[in-house]
Amino acid sequence: MGTSSSSSMSPSSTLPYHTPAEIDEIHERLLTTFRAGTTQPLPYRRHQLLQLARLVQDNATALEDAVFKDLGKPRQEAAVAELGNVLNCCLYDADHLEEWTKPEKPQVAAWRSDWDTTVYRVPKGLVLVIGPWNYPYILTLGPFMGAIAAGCTCVVKGSELAPATAQLLADLFPKYLDPHAYAFVNGAVPETTHLLERRWDHIMFTGSSKTGRVIAAAAAKHVTPVTLELGGKSPVVIADDADIEIAAKRVLYGKLQNSGQLCVSPDHVYVPRNKQDAFIAALLKMYKTFWPNGPFHEGSRWGNIVNPAQHARLRSLLNRTKGEVVIGGYFDGDKRIAPTIVKNVKLDDALMEDELFGPILPIIAVDNLEEAIHLIGTQPAPLVIYAFTSDEVVKEKLLELTRSGTLCMNDTVTHLAVYEMPFGGQGDSGHGTWNSKYTFDAFTHLRSYVDIPLALEPKLSDRYPPYTDEKYHAMTATLRTKIPDA
């Protein structure tokens, strides 16, 4: 397939965008392939999954270089958090195709036992994956591999904000994958808008809530199901019994990933008022351990903010905060912002208006766990809540009294590596889930099947007109069933 030399170009690069005509041709080509049944056999699906794994393995260095060029993302972060997970998931999915696709024979009432009742797991059809710029491998190729496993054909839309990565993936796709079934499309808002005007059988989007609403509205015109992974302000709760030093280390580790540009980045921290100083002291200790020569030193491998507009937004937030900057708060041109810790932040502070999506960590002092839970409840449900505690009572309270896509205890961001469980938001942070088997489920339709024997005709005679009182009595026996006491 490849990309064309279109007149529509990214303002920040020479990334070629697909034209509307090319998008229409790709859509028709992939739709034709699905209707032909090409992608349904399990050997085909397994081969394509293994080819995606080879794409990652063969080109790991080039993929790391591309995301470094786009974001300044350290090689270790790209390899561990993204490429390694994609490769492992491909192998895991390939090994479980027979198990996942096996038809189910549900247990039915005895009088329907000879109807051959079966639930088949069938591919939905032609699906669209719209990936983000911040984690362009795991959050784009991850959903894509679920489409392969489900037996769908799939268009993957890359992010124009990560042009080197998008171009590389567009070049690699047709070299490793069946171009009649899968295509990588590049473009910005006009091209995405044109994609959304086509009819899809499922759309998966990862990105902002604002754009997610646009995607959902466009999908609704065709009654297309969507999976939205949208992020939000993911809080951290430090309980009274928490190991302060380990908590500080793990919170700061989560915050430094991709310079805070991660949908599950620790957004802000609720800490007991009497432990705030100790927690901040532990953060400062870890800060100096992580960046002994400062984050902008050549050996620190500190990444960039994606573009000047986002850099300016974060600078504005720091200018408007009424909290106290403990460390950081300085800049390197319009590309980098030093990791910044801000204490004595109130809930109405500028830093609490929206998801930060940057290397700023507000600290909010609370009197107790109940206050932290109350404050969390006043905000939209986040993608994840983090909590540091070994107290089972505290864990139970957080499970019962808070809402989030995930509840992660005693670490940050690492739950993303658990591809055996679903990942997704709730409310404003999105809906639907994905991750390995759960992505397969998202792109799979549960198709019910029954075969009512012709030999049953004598037993079905009471259902036919003319209706009589005798037939009514015989057909409504269920309404006279004795209901047991509670």
Automatic annotation (TrEMBL):
Keywords, in A-Z order: Oxidoreductase
GO (cellular component) term, any one: cytoplasm
Stored Pfam families: Aldedh
Keyword Cell cycle: no
Gene Ontology BP terms: aldehyde metabolic process
Domain Aldehyde dehydrogenase intervals: 13-447
Active-site feature positions: 229, 263
Family matches, as Gene3D superfamilies: Aldehyde Dehydrogenase, Chain A, domain 1, Aldehyde Dehydrogenase, Chain A, domain 2
Single annotated GO MF: aldehyde dehydrogenase (NAD+) activity
Coiled coil stretches, renumbered: none
PROSITE patterns: ALDEHYDE_DEHYDR_GLU
UniProt record similarity statement: Belongs to the aldehyde dehydrogenase family.
Name of the protein in question: Aldehyde dehydrogenase
